[in-house]
C-alpha cells in the first residue's frame, strides 16, 4: 500500500475498498511506472 501512496499520491482511504487482488494489480502498475528504464 505504501508503494501506491508514493507512486500515485493516493491517501490510505483511497485503498480501503480495494480487494487484495486489486491491490496486487495496482502494486504491479506502481512497480512498472516507478522502474528505471
* Strand portion: under 5%
- Describe the biggest sheet? none
Instruction: Please give the number of β-strands.
Output: 0
The amount of helix comes to: 55-70%
Helix and strand sequence: HH
Shape assignment: flat
Mean pLDDT: 93
Given as residue ranges, the uncertain stretches (5+ residues, pLDDT < 50) are none
Radius of gyration: 10 Å
Derived from helix and strand composition plus strand pairing, the structural class reads mainly alpha
What's the number of helices? 2
For the terminal residues, how far apart are their CA atoms? 23 Å
Task: Tell me about this structure.
By secondary structure, this protein is mainly alpha-helical. It has two helices and no strands. Helix 1 crosses helix 2. The longest helix is centred in the last third of the chain and has 15 residues, at 20-34. It is flat. The mean pLDDT is 93. This is GpE family phage tail protein. Pfam families: Phage_P2_GpE (PF06528).
What's this entry about, in short?
InterPro entries: P2_GpE (IPR009493). The chain has helices at residues 2-8, 20-34.
Summary keywords:
37 residues; mainly alpha; flat; GpE family phage tail protein; P2_GpE
Topology, element by element:
Layout lengths: L1 H7 L11 H15 L3
